[in-house]
Each structure stands twice: as C-alpha cells, then as structure tokens.
Amino acid sequence: MATSIKTLRDQLVAQGNQVYIFTTTDPHAKDVDEEQGIYRFHSVPFVSFSDRRIAFAGWLKVLRLAKKLDLDIVHNQTEFSLGVMGKMVARELDIPCLHTYHTMYQDYLHYIANGHVLKPKDVARLAHLYLKNMDGIIAPSERVYTTLKSYGVTSPMRIIPTGVNLDVYGHEDSPEQTHALRQRFGYDEDTPVLLSLSRLAFEKNIHALIEAMPDILAKDSRAQLLIVGDGPAKESLERQVKEMQLGDHIQFAGEVPNNQVYHYYQMANVFVSASDSESQGLTYDEALASDLPIVVMQSPYTDELIDDPAIGISFQRRAELVQGVLRYIENPPSPEDSAKRQAKLHDISAEVFGHRVVDFYEDCQARHERQSTGHRRLFHRKKA
Fold first, then answer.
1. CA 74, CA 72: separation in Å to the nearest integer?
2. Which Pfam families match (predicted)?
3. Which CATH number fits domain 166-347: 3.30.390.80, 3.40.50.2000, 3.50.50.60, 3.40.47.10?
4. Are 191 and 301 in contact (CB under 8 A)?
C-alpha cells in the first residue's frame, strides 16, 4: 500500500498536481513535513499489527487543514479512522471522495482473536457500509473488483492496477554491482538465486517455498533461496529452515529500503511467490520490469499477467513450483524472452497508472458536480 501511494503521489506531482498526504504519526518522522505535503495525526498501534497504526483523534484538525488547503478531491487509501474522516471532509467541502481498496481482509481475519471475532460475512457488510456513496472506487485487480461486486458495492468502480516505475526497475545494474551484492550473501556468479520479496506474514505462504527447496536441490544442488523482508512470520520461517537443515541454501536478508529493492531483482535468476492473498501482486510487476522471470501462485491477476512462458509460470501444486523454477534455472531467458517481457511493460508502467487515475478523478468530478447541481435544484424547489 505504501508503495502504491508513493507511486501515485509521484505521478500526480509529475503531471502538475499538488498532493497532500494525511496519515498517522510515526515515531521516526516529524508530524508535519510541509515541503513533502505530509501531515500526521495522533495514532496508536493497531490490534495484532503493532507495526501498523490507527489515528484516534483529529477530526477538527483534519477539517480545518482541508479547508485551508482548498482541496478538490479526497482519495482515501484506508478504511479505518482516517478513511472515515476523509469521507466526512469530502461531504463538508462538497467535493468528490474516492477510495482504493487495497486489502482483501478476509485473508487476514486470523490476526484478530484467531478469527473468532470477525467472519468473512462481517468483512462484506463493513466494506459495503464504508464504500456506500463513494464517488469512485479503484480496484487494483480483477479479484478486488469481483469481490466488491459480490459485497453488493454499487458505487462507480474502475480496475486500475498500481504501476511500476520503469526508470527504477528497468535500470540495469553493472556487473560489478551485481557481483558485490551476490558476494555479500556468498553467491558465486553462476549460483542460481531464487528471490522471495514480501512482508514476512503467514498469508504470504513463504513456508511453502521453503518446503519445496529439497525437491529443487535434488535436481540442482547449487540453488539458493533469498528471502527479503520482515514481519510476524520471520521467527517461524527461520525455525522451519533450521528444522529442515536448509541453512546452507536459504538466507534471510531482512527488510531492505524501498529505494534499494531493485538491486535484488537484478541479482536474482527467478522471482518466486506462493502467496494466495495478493490483491494485485505489485512485486510480480516489479520483477517483470526488472526482466526477471516469475514463478508464482496462480490467481486471477496472474491469469491476466502471465500469457507467455517468457514472462513466467503460475502454479497450484508444489511439483509445478519446482518444475517452473528448474525451467528458468536450466534455460536462462533469451533476448526473445526479454523482448516479450518488455512488450508487457507499457500497461503496468507508473506513468500509465497516473494517467488512468487522473482520468477517473475527472470522471468522478464531473459526476459529482452533476449530482450536486441536481440536489441543489431539488432543494430550492422544495424550499419554494
């Protein structure tokens, strides 16, 4: 979500727009950064997600600031307190309110009292209630769109996948840079490196990648799995690696700054993911932009993205995961494969993403204005 917001902000600014971000307080950041247009509001750690925060006050401050900044559109990126405040601000200022639905909450219910408090039907009811009367909803993928439709959401909705900055991920590291990063983890130039890059959460299913490693090693004993990221499942995954005695073939790189992530894609031979909870799969697009083949769990998004083995392979069973990985280890991508991947990049570029969002903004503004004018006319008639 943070990557999506940053990408959108950068693209909107590049198109000449002024963007302000209202978010929660952060112990490591100042509350106001006017140069960056960032304003923070008092918050506390969220239940079961201590590294995530939720604002608990500031409605009047939010409204005063919104009026002062003379906003034209409110674009919410959270369904919690700041999202509710965003809806209230838009209503007070009579401006459009849009929302991007990032998270498939039914995949995360186990974090709250082991799933005993909230059920999928509760998610559907709450999402329907929150999204009611939105001027526009952005679904990052077909899966999100279909899910919201099944919830009975009727607000105008458009599928707009988050784009990838091709200038960053399309940048090719020098052989010296790649060698230095490989050397840091003890990899030789010809060591096949499988890259997993995500938050280390249980729903990312990283344990399935670890379970598949013995089968991969039986065919190629040189293979290495590098797990990049941090999160609540880290200790469990480290314990699994130790119990399976795979310490010589699996390493944890920890969390990597976002502006350094592209180096890891450049260094690897194949990107792997067994996650079945992706609303879009932004890392898949980043790997593609980095000219890296992907082997990932099948989903509606991968059905759309992967239309040629040059791009990657999706799997449902462990044997298919192993087979896909070995295919790319044994047959490095050819120039023809790279050309096919490049042909996919236009549709997933950050620039196209930004233009699609702005087009939706304009449609929502026009619709909001027509509806507001209609309401005002109706009001005057009744008053008369």
1. 7
2. Glyco_transf_4 (PF13439), Glycos_transf_1 (PF00534)
3. 3.40.50.2000
4. no
